[in-house]
Amino acid sequence: MLKLKNKQLILNMNNNVMKIFLKFCYFLLLAIILSCGSDTNKKEKTTEKAPVETESNSKENSVTKTILIFGDSLTAGYGLDDVNNAFPGIIQTKIDSLSLGYTVINSGVSGETTAGGKSRINWVLNQKIDVFILELAANDGLRGVPLKETRKNLQAIIDAVLEKNSATKIILAGMQLPPNMGQDYITEFKTIFPELAIKNEIYLIPFLLKDVGGIPELNQADGIHPTVEGQKILAKNVWDVLEPIINL
Q1: Do residues 113 and 55 both lie within one domain?
Q2: Distances 175 to 35, 71, 123, 234 between C-alpha atoms, Å
Q3: What is the pLDDT of residue 9?
């Protein structure tokens, strides 16, 4: 009889242990399920945020403004082994070193006159331009083009730029001629640039070739087109006017 009671007691104890064990397994399984659900939600939230942050950063990095230099052989870098040694390329290097977020477009054509510039300006304006540097008229002067025509063509180019986007900042590069063109002609030619700058309320580089024009060691054999060292000085002359504008 005693043995029977002991067996019944042991059986009851085993049943209680089994129930406790089953409850423990149930709670453990529930905890695992809840934990997995929480991790999944965290992963989903992280996945949702990541593309937004990446897209935002991508947009910020891709936003750049444009400086277009519209000119002749001085801009195009005539006679140089590498066009990047012309003043537009030098300015781009300067801008990149300062992380200013501007792209410089060299739109120089060797031999270009103001009439030629006027004929191609609408094609150039198919792109958004934030700063427009107008470097033309030297070839007009060297060819003895009537000054009234030169002035009219420069004004037409300025008008086209502002009509396309009135917010575009325009810089006019002043030019001077050698004395063999006749005193009256070269004097009136020189006044075209400051007068147009005042009339249109645009920026002016007084003389693009300052400290370069007429100095043999800074010009190529033709005495007209700057060497690499001469182009560096041209870049400085442009930069003195350009820097305050793009840092506004």
Answers
A1: no
A2: 76, 12, 25, 12
A3: 41
| Rounded average pLDDT per 10-residue block, the chain, 248 residues | 42 46 43 42 39 35 84 98 97 97 98 98 96 98 97 98 98 95 95 98 98 97 97 98 94
C-alpha 104/C-alpha 107 separation (Å) is 9
Give the pLDDT of residue 63: 66
| Active site annotation includes 62 | no
Angle CA 95–101–105, to nearest 5: 70
Q: Of 242, 220, 248, 245, which Cα lies nearest the Cα of 94?
A: 242
As for how many domains the chain has, the answer is 2
Residues 33 and 78 in one domain: no
Position 248 scores a pLDDT of 74
Supply the range of the domain harboring residue 210. Answer: 65-246
Among 81, 82, 184, 222, the one annotated catalytic: 222
Residue 114 in contact with residue 134, Cβ under 8 Å?
A: no
pLDDT score recorded for residue 101: 95
Which of 45, 63, 81 lies at the terminal end of a domain, its last residue? 63
Q: How far from each other are the two terminal CA atoms of the chain, in whole angstroms?
A: 105
Residues 124 and 5 in one domain: no
**Annotation says 222 is catalytic:** yes
Mark whether 73 is an active-site residue: yes
Q: How far is the C-alpha of 75 from the C-alpha of 123, rounded, in Å? A: 18
Burial 131-161 (b: 16+ CB within 10 A, else e): bbbbbbbbbbbeeebebeebbebbbbbbebb
> Catalytic one among 72, 73, 107, 140?
73
- Return the pLDDT at 51: 36
pLDDT given for residue 231 in this prediction: 98
